[in-house]
Amino acid sequence: MRSMFSSIILLFCVSACSQDSADTxxxxxxxxxxxxxxxxxxxxxxxxxxxxxxQVLIFGNSHVTKQASLIQTLITTxxxxxNVEIHNAGGGFLDDxxxxxxxxxxxxxxxxxxxxLQGQKYSQSGATLYSTTAAQVWxxxxxxxxxxxxxxxxxxxxxxxxxxxxxxxxHTGIAQLQKACVAPxxxxxxxxxxxxxxxxxxxxxxxxxxxxxxxxxxxIFYEVITGESADLLPYxxxxxxxxxxxxxxxxxxxxxxxxxQPCLLGT
Length: 267
What we know:
Elements (H helix, E strand, L loop, with lengths): L1 H16 L10 E3 L22 E8 L6 H12 L4 E9 L2 H5 L2 H8 L5 E4 L10 E3 L2 H12 L3 E4 L11 H15 L3 E2 L2 H11 L15 H16 L16 H17 L8
Parallel strand pairs: 1-5, 2-3, 2-4, 4-6, 6-7
């Protein structure tokens, strides 16, 4: 129960320390679903970078929709000799996916090198604290099958300057409890919006990503998965983003990763 208690305390601190007007003294804790237990093991993160074979599984909601094709294009461009398979299994939130025997079997019965995990629930208002146990279970399952687990803290919504770092902090907290890579997606978006506010990263709904926003996210995953610098990728004409913008996004991705190391491999 120590890990569960620690994750609750962390999430409470994140919510209480945000600049949110919610009264966190009345915070409601959403418990983990019955039957899901905190893993008793905490294996080292498998290192599957620098390979000629990348088999990447993605779990998540609508924020992962465009990632498979973009990540595949980036990896095959960076390493034309690589055998690359990226599979978007969707599934929604991580705790929902964990209830699916099909999703669990997909992770456990195929030779994946990496799994991207998106869909950790969190409260923007701070009024609700969501358990991170399901995320920890997914991480443990991945590592026990020699799969590199990569947490995907989603990008901030338009105009919310605190959300990117808030969500990143929630996910680094999970990685402190169960070792995993944390892709600094929201932090890269914050950096991009700060230095190049002209970039249109959000769709009109202010929530989902445009092609430019999705490309920035995919560049983060490219570097985390392969260990190769995103800013060394050439211009890719198949991606309908102009050359100067592609170069800028690659630089932002690599600089963000340099400042926020995603993985403590071998530990």
